[in-house]
Specification:
- The protein has ten helices and six strands.
- By secondary structure, it is mostly helical.
- It has a domain of 115 residues.
- The longest helix is centred in the N-terminal third of the chain and has 29 residues.
- The termini are far apart.
- About 2% of the residues have low confidence.
- Keywords: Endonuclease, Hydrolase, Nuclease.
- It comes from viral metagenome.
- This is Putative HNH endonuclease.
Length: 241
């Protein structure tokens, strides 16, 4: 049996442990397959680190240009990207939930502060003000405080229709009392953030608060959803004057 010594690991191995190379005198590479593989692996690591560092430096130097490119790319490939992201979330649902849970636990104060600032600024907008009022009206109405029943003038259904619809959407294992206690949240199936309205007479307001867009979700699940949109949606660009 023909053997050969590898100058890297200094082991004497069978000639079959070396890659064939016609340019070499014995027709095989100097280093054994195992050492060649390890060398290639280390080279890839070094190369990837170099490329990553270069990419990071480029992005930092051309931040606005890079952000503009990615924004335009998402617009051009919106449907494809949304489909890919949805598929990835479905395949990695448990792992992503664990990552999100750990992040929230480690950054709870930071998250709460960001949300507080966002909510404060959001309520200063036309849409934010009407969302806040509408949410308060609904909460009080569903709590059976009759003085807030005037919210019915803003939508195309009555309180009894809303209650009946929401009760049908109660998840297994929950009750209506869980909603009143805050364990269930009133969720917009298509998130409020994607609708385009400034007043209760705008087209998108009606769509946003339509019965077909409302459901009850466990509080934790609704917070995880965090306004995420899983499929393309075209908001209205028309405001009623």
């Amino acid at each position: 049996m023909k053997t050969k010594k590898c100058p890297s690991c200094h082991s004497i191995k069978d000639i079959a442990s070396f890659h064939k190379n016609r340019s070499k005198k014995d027709g095989h590479t100097h280093f054994c397959k195992q050492c060649s593989s390890e060398y290639s692996r280390q080279r890839r690591i070094q190369f990837n680190e170099k490329i990553t560092a270069q990419s990071r430096a480029y992005r930092k130097k051309h931040k606005e240009e890079t952000n503009a490119y990615h924004r335009q790319r998402r617009i051009n490939l919106k449907d494809t990207i949304l489909a890919q992201e949805a598929e990835y979330r479905d395949k990695n649902r448990d792992r992503l939930r664990a990552i999100e849970k750990k992040y929230r636990e480690n950054h709870r104060q930071e998250i709460n502060e960001r949300y507080r600032i966002w909510r404060k600024n959001y309520r200063k907008t036309d849409k934010g003000r009407i969302d806040n009022h509408m949410g308060s009206f609904l909460k009080r109405a569903l709590g059976k405080q009759k003085e807030s029943r005037h919210w019915e003038d803003l939508v195309e259904y009555k309180l009894s229709h809303l209650v009946g619809h929401l009760k049908k959407s109660i998840p297994h294992g929950y009750s209506w009392q869980d909603f009143l206690n805050g364990d269930l949240h009133l969720d917009h199936i298509i998130p409020k953030r994607v609708f385009n309205y400034k007043s209760a007479i705008d087209i998108d307001f009606k769509k946003c608060w339509a019965l077909t867009n409302l459901q009850l979700l466990p509080a934790e699940e609704n917070m995880k959803k965090n306004g995420r949109l899983d499929k393309p949606f075209q908001p209205s660009f028309a405001f009623v004057k």
